[in-house]
Design goal:
CATH architecture of the largest domain: 3-Layer(aba) Sandwich
CATH superfamily of the largest domain: Rhodanese-like domain
CATH class of the largest domain: Alpha Beta
Number of strands: 8
Number of helices: 7
Number of domains: 2
Order of helices and strands: HHHEHEHEEEHEHEE
């Protein structure tokens, strides 16, 4: 004798189909979680313009490295021009290829991924330091590391070399003035004014932002 209840089985089958129908397809989940945020971010960068994009990167870095203090290009320029203040040591937190194209006047390079304290050898740990990168994220990363090493007077430059160059401030290569800047890659280059871009191979991405 078959004790199965056709009506009960049909009801269970309907509930299973209903639950499946409510589940989002895998492609839709990928679209919502991965692709859509990327597209929105790209739209913000392209439509809002560099100043807003620089601020977005600064906030991203501030969430990742909350102990980092910031200075903007105007503040750094005023500091360097103030004869009553000791100018800060400038650290470039970019790759050697980027640094070779141009850097802020007198800046020393320090690898943001495998940093060594060699460039700061002989300097007291309360030395005023300003660190920059392409747009600020790698600079903040290096400031965070320096702080952990006891250099408590290190500051990150918001907008970094892109913002500095966009404002027409001085750059150098091998001690000579230049106006070209490494664009990092084909996406981030749009935050750098076209007059300053140079055609070079992109940098290998190793962090959330440059």
């Amino acid at each position: 004798m078959d004790d199965r209840n056709p009506e009960l089985e049909e009801g269970q089958s309907l509930r299973v189909r209903f639950r499946r129908s409510r589940q989002k397809p895998r492609w839709l989940i990928v679209l919502l979680v991965v692709v859509l945020p990327i597209l929105i971010g790209a739209a913000v960068f392209l439509l809002a313009g560099p100043p807003i994009a620089f601020e977005v990167v600064r906030r991203l870095a501030a969430r990742r490295f909350p102990d980092v203090h910031w200075i903007d290009p105007n503040g750094l320029a005023a500091w360097q021009a103030d004869s009553k203040r000791v100018p800060p040591v400038l650290l470039d937190a970019r790759t050697l290829d980027e640094y070779a194209v141009s850097h802020l006047r007198g800046a020393l390079r320090m690898d943001p991924y495998r940093p060594l304290l060699r460039p700061l050898r002989g300097m007291p740990k309360d030395t005023a330091i300003v660190v920059y990168s392409t747009v600020g994220y790698r600079g903040a990363r290096l400031v965070h590391w320096l702080t952990a090493q006891g250099y408590g007077n290190a500051t990150a430059l918001s907008g970094s070399i892109f913002a500095w160059a966009n404002e027409g401030r001085p750059l150098e290569r091998e001690g000579r003035p230049v106006t070209q800047v490494h664009p990092y890659d084909d996406s981030w280059k749009y935050l750098l004014a076209s007059d300053y871009r140079i055609q070079v191979p992109p940098v290998e991405k190793k962090s959330a932002a440059p």
